[in-house]
């Protein structure tokens, strides 16, 4: 910085300022304890050819952390995924609807817990009971053969 002295005190150099700022941020806003786990979870899909849906609507959910129940809607160009989360003890029930309606393969990935799979009915509805808490993503597989594509939702922490 500068060698000027203001009010009789030397100004700290850049390295000291940056170190102090780093300590200040670590104390007031530390990174989440599970940050590394979340990044690793997201990177597991790195080699898949997926389309990422975007958040459309959140009801009663704060950020990406679920408190108990709520509805989330995700969209991508030609697909809407709506899920309703219901906390039952230490697990969740996920009721979902896909539009346009049709039979699709649905996977729910939960970090450190595995994958829970089902198929929608003709109306695009699916239910998964006993989904454990944790960092979660939903994958929807559309079509088959060379026209098969996968849509993945943003991560939700149940």
CATH topology (level 3) name of the largest domain:
Immunoglobulin-like
Largest sheet: 6 strands, mixed
- Rg to the nearest angstrom? 22 Å
Overall CATH class of the largest domain: Mainly Beta
Q: How many structural domains are formed by the residues?
A: 2
Q: What is the N-to-C succession of helices and strands?
A: EEHHEEEEEEEEEEE
Shape: elongated
CATH architecture of the largest domain: Sandwich
Number of helices, where a helix is a run of at least 4 consecutive DSSP H or I residues = 2
Mean pLDDT: 81
Structural class of the secondary elements? alpha+beta
* Total beta strand runs: 13
Strand content: over 45%
Q: What helical percentage do the residues reach? A: 10-25%
Distance between the termini: 47 Å
Can you give a write-up of this model?
This protein is of the alpha+beta class and 158 residues long. It has two domains: 1-30; 35-157, Immunoglobulin-like, CATH 2.60.40. 15% of the residues lie in helices and 47% in strands. Strands 3, 8, 9, 11, 12 and 13 form a six-stranded mixed β-sheet that branches. It has a five-stranded antiparallel β-sheet with strand order 4-5-6-7-10, with no helix packed on it. Strand 5 and strand 6 (79-88) form a beta hairpin. The longest helix is centred in the first third of the chain and has 15 residues, at 14-28. The protein is elongated, with a radius of gyration of 22 Å. The chain starts with a strand and ends with a strand. Residues 59-68 have low confidence and may be disordered.
């Amino acid at each position: 910085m500068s060698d000027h002295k203001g009010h009789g005190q030397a100004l700290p150099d850049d390295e000291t300022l940056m170190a102090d700022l780093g300590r200040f941020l670590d104390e007031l806003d530390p990174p989440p304890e599970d940050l590394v786990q979340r990044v690793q979870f997201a990177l597991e899909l790195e080699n898949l050819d997926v389309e990422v849906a975007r958040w459309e609507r959140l009801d009663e959910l704060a950020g990406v952390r679920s408190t108990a129940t709520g509805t989330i809607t995700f969209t991508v160009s030609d697909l809407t995924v709506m899920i309703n989360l219901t906390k039952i003890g230490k697990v969740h029930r996920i009721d979902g609807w896909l539009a346009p309606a049709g039979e699709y393969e649905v996977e729910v990935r939960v970090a450190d817990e595995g994958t829970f799979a089902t198929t929608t009915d003709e109306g695009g509805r699916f239910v998964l009971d006993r989904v454990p808490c944790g960092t979660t993503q939903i994958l929807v597989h559309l079509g088959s053969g060379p026209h098969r594509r996968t849509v993945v939702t943003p991560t939700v922490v149940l």
